[in-house]
Amino acid sequence: YINILNRALEEDHSSFCTNKSVDNCGNTDTEGLLVLKDIAAADQGIYVCTATLENVTSSVIRQIQIGEPPVIEKSPISVVARDPPSYVVFEAAARGNPPPVLKWYHNSNEIDFKNTTKMYLTSTGSLIILGPQFEDNGQYKVVADNGAGSVEAAASLTIYFSKCYYYCRE
């Protein structure tokens, strides 16, 4: 199988085709090498190399994934409140290829959503803080990572409590 494919490639009886359409089929160079230049996300897909030698045909299928670093599409906005609201939402959204994983940090410590009953991560990547208290004040950072890169955005939470507005300030 491999020998047939290699010999056919050497004799230039090979072609390639993408999963996009028959129009994307073509011949390889004389060494049977497909070179993609200036690749983009549109080049991602399944490529099939077919070689024919002496009426015997062999094919190799390869999937090409194009990594695209994440981009923050929605950044969290800082919140300042005089009395604690019932909840605070830091919105966040990111895209990339593969889709990025979002992690949140409070004052440089990663938030463990499995071990908290007041902080929740939404399906879109936003952070919800229920019943925020003075100890929840500080810097919140979201990091989007997908292996092709990472990007971050930050916002702060500042809550002033009426009963200690002048005494509890940092």
Automatic annotation (TrEMBL):
Keywords: Disulfide bond, Repeat
GO-annotated cellular components: membrane
InterPro entries in the cross-refs: Ig-like_dom, Ig-like_dom_sf, Ig-like_fold, Ig_I-set
GO biological process, one term: cell-cell adhesion
Pfam families cross-referenced by the UniProt entry: I-set (PF07679)
Residue ranges constituting the Ig-like domain according to the UniProt record: 70-158
UniProt protein name: Ig-like domain-containing protein
Organism annotation: Amphimedon queenslandica (Sponge)
